[in-house]
Design brief:
The chain is globular. The N and C termini lie far apart (79 Å). By secondary structure, the chain is an alpha+beta fold.
Length: 170
Amino acid sequence: MAAEAPLLDEFRRLRARVPQLTGALAAGVDGLVLAHDTPGVEPDGLAALTAAALGVAQRMTDATGRGDFRELLVRGADGYVATYAAGDTAVLTLLAKDGVNVGRLHLEGRRAGARIGELIDAEAAPPRRSPAKSSAKEPKESKETKPMPTRTRNARTTRTTANARTTTDS
């Protein structure tokens, strides 16, 4: 994969921001390793387990009406395994020590997942044809996968009180 070097660079930057990370893995939703930095953990097995956990998490969010998968956190006696959506076709799995700041892990994991997703989706996108080079017969498009939505913040509106009292001069 041509994007492996940028993914490994992203892992290095992530480890600098979250020193308690002990491993990082980018995998396709099918369980194939795209890039890894997982000392002491077999990456193919972790990618396969990530795909299995992703399948269960997606079914759980669907069954409970919680929308599309975004992230999964598992805590063991010795640390955390966190999995984040990374674009349309990949996931990012992070391994962290028990003393990690979980809020920081989520913040950095979500950001890294978005950047990794952009890298992987850009590589997977078919090259665009210019109108002059397109042939008369266009191939039928395959069934599109539903992209994982990104979380956006909405502007807050001011609250009004229904029973607000006002004073008037009499």
